[in-house]
Amino acid sequence: MAKKFGIALVIVVMLLAIGVWQRHRILVPLATTGERIMPSEEASLPADGKPFGEEAYFYIVQLDERTFAIAEPYSWAKNVNYLIAGTDRALLLDAGVGFYDIRPVVKQLTDLPITFLPSHLHYDHTGQGGYERVALVDLPHLRDRAKENMFAPNWGEHLGVAEGLEPAIWEIDEWVKPGSDIDLGERKLTLFYTPGHTDNSISLLDRASNIMFTGDYMSAGNISAYYPGGSMGDYLQSAHKLLRATADSPNIALRGAHAGDDGQLPVKARSDIETLRDQLVKIEDGTLESTGSYPRVYAIKEDVVMQAEPRWLQDWSPTYPDDEN
Ligand SMILES: [Zn+2]
After folding, report:
1. CATH number for the domain harbouring residue 127
2. Is the pTM of this model over 0.90?
3. Which of 18, 161, 191, 251 is the residue whose CA sits 20 to 30 A from 24?
4. In what helix (H) or strand (E) does residue 273 lie, and over which residues does it extend?
5. Rounded to the nearest whole angstrom, what is the distance from the C-alpha of residue 315 to the centroid of ligand 1?
6. What CA–CA distance (Å, rounded) separates 308 from 7?
7. What is the pLDDT of residue 62?
8. Which residue range forms the structural domain that includes residue 288?
9. Does residue 17 lie in a domain region?
10. How far is the centre of ligand 1, averaged over its atoms, from the C-alpha of 2 (Å)?
């Protein structure tokens, strides 16, 4: 009898361990339908936004002479993608939700050759897939998977399964090392590896324009570290890194990749990263309260919440502990 009970207990413990290890594979299908979420009928539109085309799905906001935000106010994600032009070429940072083709919008805005660079590989940033040129952050865990420069995001990186979308396969033209510059012609962007939201997230620093494009690391409203590849240790390491990179630019504008509920373009300040860093330290030592079950929700400041895994599942060791860029 005791022996049978012992075996049953071992099996239960093993099943629980597998359940915890494979939690995203279990939770993502439970939390989503696997079907397309249609755009909403009404939306709050970004100030000074101009609708594109008859469908008026995309809204374009010109930030300066060479920088455009391309917003998707009607999508559930309220994505904001950026077209950043130099004199030789333009960079498309993110391409929106995979059901909508951003390429005609970009063509209308510039004649320059376009390089697509995802801020990270979630399907609401990778768009429809095919681009003239594709750049990707040069990280060992991505580069090792590319065969003859062909690369496809994996299940957990892409998460398109939530709406029944397959990841694209890209030919990578440009692997960008963290800390190095992307030269657009009379305009340089420095790429920083800023994981936390995912383990492939990047930020771009445009020193001359005093803008840091932060992807989903820091956007309007929610920030989240509970998806596959998300990590609290990475979030904290990236906060230190972003603060170092902008130490000489106290008034830098942080431009994230999702609008808030008010539909306006996201813009945060360097001090918001300081607050985030301080609150992360409190989360790590267990002194910041949280609510909810999964994800746990931490109030970072009045207009920012962080969705994270419960403390016993939080990983506080960075993906690349020695990385400074
Ligand atoms: Zn994301």
Report:
1. 3.60.15.10
2. yes
3. 191
4. helix 270-284
5. 18
6. 34
7. 97
8. 46-313
9. no
10. 49
